[in-house]
Structure formats: C-alpha cells, structure tokens
Amino acid sequence: MLYIIVGNDYSKIKKTIAVYTEASECIAISSNPCDYETLDNYIGSRGLFDATKTIIIKNIFSLSEEKSAIHERIADMLTSPHIFLIIEDSITPKEKEEFKNKKVTVQEFSLREQDKRDTTLFKLADYYRDRDKKNLWLEFCRCIEQGKPAEEIHGILWWQIKTLLAILLSGSNPGLHPFVYEKNKRAVKNFSLKELQADLLKLLTLYHQARKGQGELAILLEQYILELFTLSTKQKVSR
Length: 239
Hints:
The chain is α/β, with parallel strands linked by helices. It has two domains: about 1-110, Rossmann fold (3-Layer(aba) Sandwich), CATH 3.40.50; about 120-235, Zinc Finger, Delta Prime, domain 3, CATH 1.20.272. Helices cover about 60% and strands about 10% of the residues. The protein has a five-stranded parallel sheet, sandwiched between helices. α2 links the parallel β2 and β3 (about 55-60). α6 packs parallel to α8 (about 150-170), α7 runs antiparallel to α11 (about 215-225) and α8 packs across α9. The longest helix has 21 residues, at about 150-170.
C-alpha cells in the first residue's frame, strides 16, 4: 500500500500518520540519499506472518536524482502488505496527475485557506504602520467579532513595532524579506525612537496585566489602540 501525503498543515499530517501507524511498527527511511537497500527489503517482504509495518519517507520528490528511482518502485509498493507513506511539502500538478494515473492515493492537507483568513490580522500591522488609528480600531473590532484570539492581535502589533524599531536602529535591512523591509523602510520616518519604544513597553505591560488577572487582554488592547499616536507632529519626527 502506498499513500502520498502533501501539504503544510503539519497538525493534520501528524494525525493522519498516527492513524496509519496505530497498529503497526513505524520505520523512517532516509531520503538524502535514500536507503534503497532497506526500502527494497520491505518492498520485497511478503511473508504471510510478517507484521505489517509503516515505512515513512519524507521530501524525496524534491530530490531529482531520487524521484525516478521511487517511481520505478511505485507498482511494487502498491501491492506490498506493508504501508508506505511518502510525505511531501508540495508536488507539482504534473506529479499529482502521474500518481493518479498509477492509482496512487494522494492526500492533501494545506493551510492555504487558513493562511488566507489569517492574513486579515496583517491589516492591523498595516494600519499601525500608516498611523491610521480609526481603521486600526475598526479592524481590531472586526477581528474580535470574528473570534480572533486577543493574543494573536497582540502578537501582530508587537511584530510590527519590533520591525520598525529594528529598521530604525540598524539603519539598514536587519534581515527582513526585501518586500517587508521596503514597505517598513518608507514608514519608519513617521515614527520616533521614543514613540516606538513607548508603544512596545505599553504592549508588554498590558500583556502582563492580563496574565495577572488585572483585566481582559482584548479590553486592554482596545484601550491601547485608542490611546495611540497622541504625539504632536514635532514630537513625532524628533529623533
């Protein structure tokens, strides 16, 4: 039996692997380079009284020199009494069609839709970076209504301020993705070091207040947002 498991939802992938390995011994085979001697031993093991085993190979199709060798063994893996799981982060549509033609089951567990929903949180970072308190507050309210955890909202604001601080203090790209760096580089001139440090300290303080039971994090965050950007223009540009 052979199954291809594809995707980046590692929680679901882990649960799926657990189902296959629940009643069998789990054996991991190296993919770089592939241990074909061990793999072929299990492919050729067909004893009636042999215990079923689950053999796991990870990210082997990303290695072109190994891909053709695995394809040559697909038919035998399909008819083996053992279970073969090939785990891949991604495969091409062409590869997926090839597996389908060979009667291989491909299971996909992708976080793409979840990621798409979660990108709404980055609007909060955008509005902070643009000093747009009104839309930051409105987006915050939408996130709370949609059930976004207050911890995640706190985290995205923390990340945005830390990013601006890193650029301001380094004077160059501190290791960010070029797109993220360029977007924040343009915005950092609208903030002072004092203001960013103060905002970060307030975020840290309210987080600890919530942990100590001195208020709900969502309520503390809303108050924090409503008090943002109170510096005058002169204070704002001052370094």
